[in-house]
TrEMBL record:
Membrane-spanning segments: none
GO-annotated molecular function: aldehyde-lyase activity
Cofactor: thiamine diphosphate
Pfam families, per the entry: XFP, XFP_C, XFP_N
Record's keyword terms, sorted: Lyase, Thiamine pyrophosphate
InterPro entries referenced in this protein's UniProt entry, alphabetically: Phosphoketolase, THDP-binding, Transketo_C/PFOR_II, Xul5P/Fru6P_PKetolase, Xul5P/Fru6P_PKetolase_C, Xul5P/Fru6P_PKetolase_CS, Xul5P/Fru6P_PKetolase_N, Xul5P/Fru6P_PKetolase_ThDP_BS
Family: Belongs to the XFP family.
Keyword Iron included in the entry's annotation: no
Domain Xylulose 5-phosphate/Fructose 6-phosphate phosphoketolase N-terminal: start-end pairs: 12-372
Lineage: Bacteria, Pseudomonadati, Pseudomonadota, Betaproteobacteria, Burkholderiales
Enzyme class per UniProt: lyase
Keyword Cytoplasm assigned: no
Protein name: Probable phosphoketolase
Residue ranges annotated for the Xylulose 5-phosphate/Fructose 6-phosphate phosphoketolase C-terminal domain, each copy included: 591-792
């Protein structure tokens, strides 16, 4: 679909002149951010002392992005559009910042960067400067929901923002370097999940400026027909705006963008009037303009504009090279700042009129500060979905199956601001009950066979796609614009979104700590299931609980980790997380049947405390124990209990304290994490000098990392995953990683001084049990029945 708008000239001569001058103002500010610390309006000849000592920033995509923003502003004013903008090019913040400053909103939030010469000086100085702001769209940038420093997620963030926002248009500029990433390539398929009745629209704008840091970009170097076919194949209707002559490009973009908006509105009007949400071909724009457009054409005999040399700082040494200084001055004066800004340094009145006003300004759109629009979830009582527990550890239930029934009602009550995300694993993760409230979103083709258990619907609210990147991007865009959700994924594959989690956590930390104007947004809730200890057929490749290590590296202000041991605890934790704001909550809960330990009242109390002594599993009778058996996670909890039962039978007078941890950060000191225990409380649970045998879901080093400052740390002996596994039965996998009941009991015998010697025969029996159970697993392919259906008897097993 070649560009059919190129011959149209929708802009009058006066409108063209004003838009071009406004664009020049944006470009002038972008260049000023990179170079100037003084003389912001060039009201005197440029001198070396006016130049920043360190030149940092990226010029290459700025003019192209400003070009897009100017044209979006025209249509916002003309058609009263509700628009947010996402800058995909990695370090293209100068364009966004310049537009925000010219709209006046930047100065409203940051009064010291006022709309005058002094404010402009401060505006320039802060950019890529210690104590200032970065060169990508950081949280400090009003109107932004996208951290531009990480490539590949602009489009998925855009679609996440558009879901359930029927009047919103999200303009997403995709950098052509960014377009080479796997996540971005996959996110083009998001158009198969956009419902034109209930959702807003995304207008992707692929910005082909030809180069990355030092190489051509792939999509800029394939034939036009091939590029067009690519996007038609993705299901879009591509329009091309190409060239370098500003006057012609303004006319082309004005015609093309307005046509795309009209097309979007026609699609939505038809769907909403007929009630038919069949997948349309949504429009998109391919903008091909020179890299470093309007900048220096040549530096030191080398081409710059239209070259990779324009990517970052086009002229590197103006503070020390007189020729370079004159080149920078000539470049910036070409924009004629004296005609753009009045005597005070403010944008002249006739150009200020081009910007939208109030919340129609892109930088002030409330969707980009989602907490302003956030509605609390209408939550059912999670207690009503609990499991009856009359005797601890006597009944097996799938925790996620129970959670699914609760989430079903959460979904049913919140059909416009809650979604569940997952990579084709909702049913596998035993969350099938959610489908009773809403099916899977699907606007691509369906066939008759899909009706047999497919749960596909254009009205679905369960978002499934086999791309964790795209799902997380959708989810982040959704919550940053004020809505709620939960993302369930296999533990082995949550690592796919490690870097996305990192960026979102950093965004939250910055917003929460320093930016009071950003209102709290709903939390990202990650349910990690299909866990390391239950990979009977997937084997070693699916055994990786290390995401928890990644999470603990982030600020304690924004991350939480919960390991509920049973279904009632999972319900309590999930309810808490869904109600929370400004966190990334990580919940670890398996989908397979597990023993249930606590009734609902006890579960709520236990989860509220985050850590607790289970009196029913302890034998210390409120006295000083001989040993503390601690655990975190479902399988580690069961194996620790089974070890206690063995020890009780072997050594009836042994005083054991049983401790379960739900909130992992309770292990940290209260001086380092808001959920941390004081040293006194920690010692009251774990003692100050007794051996602690800690059975842990993940890598043992993580417990040591969190508790290394504790008084009794030297006595903490942690069992966890040791990167050993294959196609194993559950007990076999536990044994080879030494988190099993027999290994734990042996460790207690070795660590409790009074058991040394008297426990030798018990140790021999325990070693024999390990050998026998391994042999049985390899002979029969399954664990023995007394292991598979083990329940807590309380009396124990003797040698």
């Amino acid at each position: 679909m070649a560009d059919t708008r190129g011959s149209e000239s929708p802009l009058s001569a006066d409108a063209l002149r004003k838009m071009d001058r406004y664009w020049h103002a944006c470009n002038y500010l972008a260049a000023g951010m990179i170079y100037l610390r003084e003389n912001p309006l060039l009201r005197e000849p440029l001198k070396p002392g006016h130049i920043k000592n360190r030149l940092l920033g990226h010029w290459g995509s700025d003019a192209g992005q400003s070009f897009v923003l100017v044209h979006l502003n025209r249509l916002i004013k003309k058609l009263n559009l509700d628009v947010i903008y996402i800058a995909g090019p990695g370090h293209g913040a100068p364009a966004t910042l310049a537009s925000c400053y010219l709209e006046g909103h930047y100065s409203e939030i940051y009064p010291d960067r006022s709309e005058d010469e002094a404010g402009m000086r401060q505006f320039f100085r802060q950019f890529s400067f210690p104590g200032g702001i970065g060169s990508h769209c950081t949280p400090e940038t009003p109107g932004s929901i996208h951290e531009g420093g990480e490539l590949g997620y602009s489009l998925s963030h855009g679609y996440g923002a558009a879901f359930d926002n029927p009047d919103l248009i999200v303009a997403v500029v995709v950098g052509d370097g960014e377009a080479e990433t796997g996540p971005l390539a996959t996110s083009w398929h998001s158009n198969k999940f956009l419902n034109p009745i209930r959702d807003g629209a995304v207008l992707p704008i692929l910005h082909l400026n030809g180069y990355k840091i030092a190489n051509p970009t792939i999509l800029a170097r394939i034939p036009h027909e091939e590029l067009e076919a690519l996007f038609i194949g993705y299901g879009h209707r591509p329009y091309f705006v190409e060239g370098d002559d500003p006057a012609q490009m303004h006319q082309k973009m004005a015609a093309t963008m307005e046509h795309c908006i009209e097309e979007i509105r026609a699609i939505q009007q038809h769907a909403r009037s007929t009630g038919s949400a069949r997948r349309p071909r949504w429009p998109m724009i391919v903008l091909r303009s020179p890299k470093g457009w309007t900048g220096p054409r040549e530096v030191d005999g080398h081409k710059v504009e239209g070259s990779w040399r324009a990517h970052q700082v086009p002229v590197l040494d103006p503070a020390t090279n007189e020729t370079s200084l004159k080149l920078v001055e000539s470049w910036m004066r070409r924009y004629r700042p004296e005609e753009l800004f009045d005597e005070s340094g403010r944008l002249v009145a006739e150009l200020r009129e081009l910007a939208p006003t109030g919340t129609r300004r892109i930088s002030a759109n409330p969707h980009a500060n989602g907490g302003l629009l956030c509605r609390a979830l209408d939550m059912p009582s999670f207690r009503e979905y609990g499991v009856d527990v009359t005797t601890p550890a006597s009944r097996y239930v799938s925790p996620t199956d129970v959670l699914g029934k609760f989430l079903c009602e959460v979904m049913r009550r919140n059909m416009s601001n809650f979604r569940v995300f997952g990579p084709d694993e909702t049913s596998s993760n035993k969350l099938t009950a959610i489908y009773e409230a809403s099916q899977k979103t699907w606007l691509a083709e369906t066939i008759a066979d899909d009706a047999d258990g497919g749960e596909l619907s254009v009205d679905g609210r369960v978002m499934e796609m086999l791309s964790e990147h795209t799902l997380e991007g959708w989810f982040e865009g959704y919550v940053l614009t004020g809505r709620h959700g939960l993302f369930a994924t296999y533990e082995a594959f949550v690592h796919v979104i490690d870097s996305m989690f990192n960026q979102h956590a950093k965004w939250l930390e910055k917003a929460k700590r320093e930016l009071r104007w950003r209102q709290p947004v709903p939390s990202i809730n990650l349910l990690i299931t299909s866990l390391v200890w239950r990979q009977d057929h997937n084997g070693f490749t699916h055994q990786d609980p290390g995401f928890l290590d990644v999470v603990t590296n982030k600020s304690p202000d924004v991350v939480r980790i919960y390991l509920p041991p049973d279904a009632n605890c999972l319900l309590s934790v999930a309810d808490h997380c869904l109600r929370s704001r400004d966190y990334v909550n990580v919940i670890v809960a398996d989908k397979q049947p597990h023993l249930q330990y606590l009734d609902m009242d006890a579960a709520v109390t236990h989860c509220t405390k985050g850590i607790g002594i289970w009196e029913w599993a302890s034998t210390d009778q409120h006295a000083d124990p001989d040993v503390v058996m601690a655990c975190a996670g479902d399988i580690p909890t069961m194996e620790s209990l089974a070890a206690v039962e063995i020890l009780k039978a072997q050594f009836p007078d042994l005083k054991i304290r049983f401790v379960n941890v739900v909130d992992l950060f309770r292990l940290m000191p209260d001086t380092e994490h808001p959920h941390g225990l004081s040293d006194r409380d920690f010692d009251s649970i774990f003692t100050a000098d007794k051996p602690v045998i800690f059975n842990f879901h993940s890598y043992s080093s993580l417990v040591h990392k969190l508790s290394y400052k504790r008084n009794n740390h030297d006595n903490m002996h942690v069992h966890g995953y040791r990167e050993k596994g294959n196609i194993n039965t559950p007990l076999e996998l536990a044994i080879i990683n030494e988190v099993d009941r027999f290994s734990l009991a042996i460790d207690v015998i070795d660590r409790v001084p009074r058991l040394r010697g008297v426990g030798d025969h018990a140790k021999e029996w325990l070693r024999g049990q390990i050998i026998e159970h391994l042999a049985y697993a390899h002979a029969e392919g399954i664990d023995r029945e007394e292991i598979r259906n083990w329940t807590w008897a309380g009396e124990g097993t003797r040698a």
